[in-house]
User: Fold these one by one.
Assistant:
Number 1:
Amino acid sequence: MPGQVLRRGDLSAAGQVAALAARHAEDSDAHRTLSPEVIEELIRVGFCRHFVPRRWGGVAGTFTELLAATATVGAGCTSAAWCASLAAGAGRLGAFLPEDGQRELWGEGPDALVVAGLTPTGTASEVPGGWLVRGEWRYVSGVESSDWAFVCGPGPESGQGPMFFLVPRADYRVLDTWFPTGMRGTGSNTVVVDGAFVPRHRAFLRESMWRGHSVGSTARCHTVPLRVASGLLFAAPALGAARGAIAAWSARLGGTRDPASGDRAAGHRDLAWAVGMADAAGLLLQRAAQVADQPSVTPLEAVRNPMDCALAVEHLVNAVQRLFRAAGTSGQFAGEPLQRFWRDVHFLASHAALRLGTASEPYGRQLAQTARGKAGGPDEAGGG
């Protein structure tokens, strides 16, 4: 409702954020970053605190709630939804820090804006009390407005897996390197750390996150294995983008402007097809979110979730593509929401976590293994 005061941590107010983000979407696209007003509202309604443990004032919320809120924001601006979802996901990493690290991150409140460089491209040299970290991490969304950054690097000890290091804003700089064709408003620039000291309480092994070995929290959002949940963070904005494209197309059919062909019946068919594809994708993502929120998952569910997310995004790309092509020349002008959603979903779908070929093979393998087990045949692990 207009004039309603947003309560901190209330993701149910995501619709108001969507309206604000939509008003700023063209400027965000042009300037390659979200406006400060949009960032503030994303924080205000609770995206940053959504996965923060309750003992630090957070919500320790569900993936189902985050999916719904992110998709709502995405209908107004895909870039805003992406930054919102990834801010929640990066904040979740804090639950794997030692207790003193969590206190430093959230001791003054749960709304710190955390970003993450997920690829282990940096280096860490062990020194008394911690590590000296240096390196560059590309494609860090929302970094200009961040308070902290998790950066990943190879473990300094032989045989040790990669580690995440939490670095305060004063210890990293940002290179303006984000010049993409889609998702332009995410401001996914490059983080540079020039030899920052990171104490031991601000680091953890990446394996802990993969396995869901959090510190001091038994909430499911902290104990769920990463592969069960990570695809949702990246797929949810695409669901919103498709809904935004459908709304833009519906406005054309509603009389404000005609579809390119002038054939309303064809426009209705395109609309019905796109809505059906988006609805199917939404159901896949809802199932994946419900699985991520369960107390435990089966081996089949664990590999089905990445598949569900990748397949959902495939459907969403096809839905937007159908409408964009049907819009003709008029839909391709700068400032038209439809062309922005089209650029965004195609760009988003290229993310490594959403590649259908990568996700489908483990799922197919597990399906075959499960079928053999039910039939009493040899399982794959036995080699027979």
Note: Residues 1-7, 376-384 have pLDDT under 50 and may be disordered.
Number 2:
Amino acid sequence: MQQSDEALRKQLAVWWAIWNKAEVVLREIEKRANSEFLPIVGPEKGQVIAETIRKAKPKRVLEVGTLIGYSAILMGKELDNDAQVITIEIHAEEAETAEENIRKADIPAKVEVITGDAIQVIPELTGCFDFVFIDAEKTEYLDYLQLVEDKLREGSIIVADNAGIFANQMKNYLDYVRTSGKYRSKYVPVGVDGIEISVKT
């Protein structure tokens, strides 16, 4: 029992070190985002997303819109070391910065940053996804979803950012997840904005 307790303490210390390193990088990105007006999800929405990830325990995550890696790190630090995050960023410079930030965060999940247009990249991806986070071109949210739809399982979760302040631009997406019968969907307000969380039925 004593050995087991010691092993548990060591494992907890490892988890804490990983979590803390990622948190330091997240705070650095938040500071940069504030000074450079970068549209990251931020800590408030981040908390909701992290909680959703913790409850769902996905093994395979797709992110559309990496920017400089904030949400990839946020999600990745909540995942087990056998989980995978594939994140797509259209701009090469931002994708490169994201890769650097993800390396610094040293999160347990495997994160692959793909540089390219998600409209072209998603059809080339193989396998299924348990969780999808969309935070890219608002008028193309429905396109992204429909491209990945055949890679979703029953119970897969789709989180769409900016469903409050950009509701008009996302109207076709929001109508689809709320009325197509393919999803159970709800809007979660966070501050002045919100996210749409949809579950594949």
Note: Residues 90 and 154 are 29 Å apart (CA to CA).
